[in-house]
Design goal:
pyridoxal phosphate binding, single chain, Aspartate Aminotransferase, domain 2, alpha/beta, Oxidized Rhodanese, domain 1, 678 residues, PyrdxlP-dep_Trfase_major, lyase, 4 domains, 5-stranded parallel β-sheet, 7-stranded mixed β-sheet, 24 strands
Length: 678
């Protein structure tokens, strides 16, 4: 049975006498707008209004429980809805109330019920006709309905299921509400039903409120560890959004699904029901399990631990029909090597999972390629970009050459400008690029503040989050639209793989994906496999980098040869208050300023180190020391310091050995400085 129809299909079928169109629009309880008033202002021609407020059990202590069959028979009969009729339901996208109405009809054995994809918003967007005023059914009917009890669960049945584990419980609420970090209703306990998984219903819809493709819906289920081979039981806050998950499961052809109608309003108000707090899958576990879908690791008789390396250019099809089918959805299956194989897909899945709220991720052969594509996806000739003055030097070079040649104006701004950045906006400002902390001088930016003012003006925000990774800074949750990482560094962690990534929120991913494909961006399966294996140990490595770097940085801050330590976790670092507020940790990269001396004295210091390599990049297990000079590449704010700057990456060696090495180097520096007189 067809479950979704387009506005074009519905328009062509408006004259069908067996067709009933139902406006099931609804608004959140804290919104003053009345759904019926909006229906009277404009609705699809011939549509009848289904008042969701009437479809509830008035005798139940909770406000939205399924009413008695008598009540349902009266309300559906009043609208003339026969179980054999063709019914199309739509809403106004403020709440997924069409899915709730669809579930109620299916619960009572209606056989031909469909949703209008994109609702009234899409209908109007395609400039199709609307009516005003109230429509009344010309033929009310008397109904005798039955109820499909397989589609609904009671509190006691859910309690039994916690013990038996027969059905996988899936919660449609926002992640922070699910975990108990936030509370939607103070009268209810925080948390979720024990052993349940979390799939926010918004992940099933695109930026326009249309349902995603079945391939993307399946990916959303898989990313949240929901096994589609198991019976599924859906729940939410008040029974309003869980039907959207149930509808999505039906789109995938799944029949063994049900809904707990009481949801958290009932469960959370009952002191006798067990409750859990925390995420469904904790960070360390997600790092280990992400990207290991069953179909990518399972073989005859068992499964491998790591997704195998699929090397391919040509993909062979069984028939012309198979080729044509793949051509219509080239990114949903094996199509051509440049489109990827399960090896690359596994890494994409894993990186996306680490960014709550993301749509998906695109991989690139280097970090520079990733930041370049992120910028090009957000900008067009004539646009203006605000670029942080403390950015990675190749980022600045790209702006001053490629973007300039394309007629894109770049304005550099002080990294500590905060919300005052709004004064730099012009009608042509389209994107803001942030790098926090800066890669040489480590200023920490007020990312939430900048994102807040940017989004008020519909300006895209892009962040280079290589230093913190999503483990130490959750960029999308803080308002970033496009998150860039040089996976060359901490993701791979072994200084032997070049790679970049951009993870995008809904509304930005499709353009990013399209322009990256047009530029032929591609990551080989061997590099993807290397990054995926590095990702598994990211958390334990980062914690060790953090511990070692803090010990070294604090020691340096006490040395007379050191004028200034630029480590975000230390109060001496510009923007430290934002690090303290927004970040969950610090990595192994920081700089320090020598007390006096010249570049030759700095060279003596670095050349005398035994445990520090001298080279570009960072993020591997080895420690590095690099002479840097921020002044020539700063234009928005001048850089002044008491002496030359050294950037350190603290690796996984014993920090006491590193400190002893640095102490010897500082001794050599002091002797050279005293001799040179600087």
């Amino acid at each position: 049975m067809k479950l979704l129809v387009t506005p074009e299909w519905l328009y062509r079928n408006l004259a069908n006498p067996r067709l009933h169109i139902i406006d099931a629009g609804s608004y959140p309880p804290d919104v003053d707008t009345k759904a019926y008033d909006e229906y009277c202002k404009a609705h699809i021609p011939g549509a009848l209004f289904l008042d969701n407020r009437l479809l509830r059990d008035e005798n139940a202590p909770l406000p939205r429980m399924v009413p008695s069959i008598d009540k349902v028979e009266y309300e559906f009969g009043r609208l003339g809805l026969d179980p054999d009729d063709i019914i199309v339901i739509y809403d106004n996208l403020s709440l997924p109330s069409a899915a709730r109405a669809w579930w109620l009809l299916m619960l009572h054995e209606y056989r031909h019920v469909m949703l209008l994809d994109g609702g009234l918003t899409r209908w109007k967007g395609e400039r199709l006709p609307v009516e005003s005023g109230a429509a009344i059914s010309s033929s009310p009917i008397i109904l005798q309905l039955s109820r499909n009890e397989a589609l609904i669960r009671t509190r006691n049945q859910v309690m039994h299921n916690i013990v038996s584990g027969h059905e996988v419980i899936v919660d449609a609420r926002a992640p922070k509400v699910f975990s108990g970090e936030a509370v939607a209703n103070p009268a209810l306990a925080p948390g979720h039903i024990p052993h349940s998984l979390n799939l926010p219903y918004e992940e099933l819809l695109d930026d326009n409120g249309c349902w995603k493709t079945t391939s993307k819906i399946e990916q959303a289920f898989a990313r949240n560890r929901i096994d589609l081979d198991q019976p599924l039981l859906f729940t939410c806050g008040a029974g309003r959004t869980a039907p959207a998950l149930l509808f999505a499961a039906r789109l995938l052809g799944k029949r063994d699904v049900s809904l707990y109608d009481g949801s958290w309003e009932e469960w959370g108000s009952d002191p006798d029901t067990p409750k859990e707090v925390g995420p469904a899958i904790r960070e360390s576990t997600r790092l280990i399990t992400a990207g290991r879908r069953r179909e990518w690791v399972k073989g005859k008789g068992g499964s491998v631990v790591n997704p195998p390396v699929w090397r391919a250019s040509t993909i062979l099809f069984d028939s012309v029909a198979g080729l044509e089918n793949a051509s219509s959805h080239p990114d949903d299956q094996l199509y051509y090597g440049r489109r990827g194989t399960p090896t690359q897909w596994a890494l994409v899945d894993a990186l996306t999972e680490l960014h709550p709220g993301a749509e998906s991720t695109v991989l690139y052969p280097s970090g520079v390629a990733a930041l370049s594509m992120a910028l090009l996806s957000a900008l067009e000739p004539g646009d203006e970009l605000l670029m942080v003055d403390s950015c990675y030097e190749p980022t600045r070079v790209f702006c001053d050459t490629v973007l300039k040649a394309q007629g894109i104006n770049v304005t550099y701004y002080d990294p500590l400008v905060g919300q005052e950045i709004e004064h730099l906006f012009t009608p042509k400002t389209r994107a803001i690029f942030l790098e926090s902390p800066g890669s040489l001088t480590f200023e920490v930016q007020d990312i939430p503040g900048i994102c807040e003012v940017a989004h008020r003006h519909s300006i895209t925000t892009i962040l280079d989050n290589t230093w913190a990774t999503p483990l130490f800074f959750s960029a999308i949750e803080r308002g970033i639209d496009l998150v860039v990482m040089a996976c060359t560094k901490y993701i791979t962690g072994h200084s032997d793989t070049m790679m970049g990534s951009v993870t995008a929120v809904p509304g930005h991913f499709d353009k990013l994906k399209r322009i990256s494909g047009l530029f032929g961006q591609y990551v080989g399966p061997d590099d993807a496999n290397s990054a995926l294996k590095g990702l598994r140990t990211l958390k334990v490595r980062l914690k060790e980098h953090e511990k070692n770097a803090l010990k070294v940085a604090k020691w340096l801050s006490e040395q007379p040869e050191v004028a200034w330590v630029l480590h975000p976790a230390m109060s001496s670092c510009p923007g430290h208050e934002f690090w303290n507020r927004d970040f969950k940790g610090s990595s192994g990269l920081f700089s320090f300023v020598l007390e006096g001396g010249n570049n030759q004295d700095r060279t003596v210091f670095i050349d005398s180190l035994e445990h520090f390599g001298i080279g570009f990049s960072w993020g591997g297990y080895e420690s590095l020391a690099l002479p840097v000079d921020p002044q020539p590449i700063r234009t928005a704010a001048s850089w002044q310091a008491a002496g030359p700057v050294v950037r350190l990456h603290i690796g996984l060696e014993d920090p006491d050995d590193l400190i002893a090495d640095l102490a010897f180097g500082l001794k050599r520096f002091r002797a050279s400085r005293d001799q040179s007189g600087f």
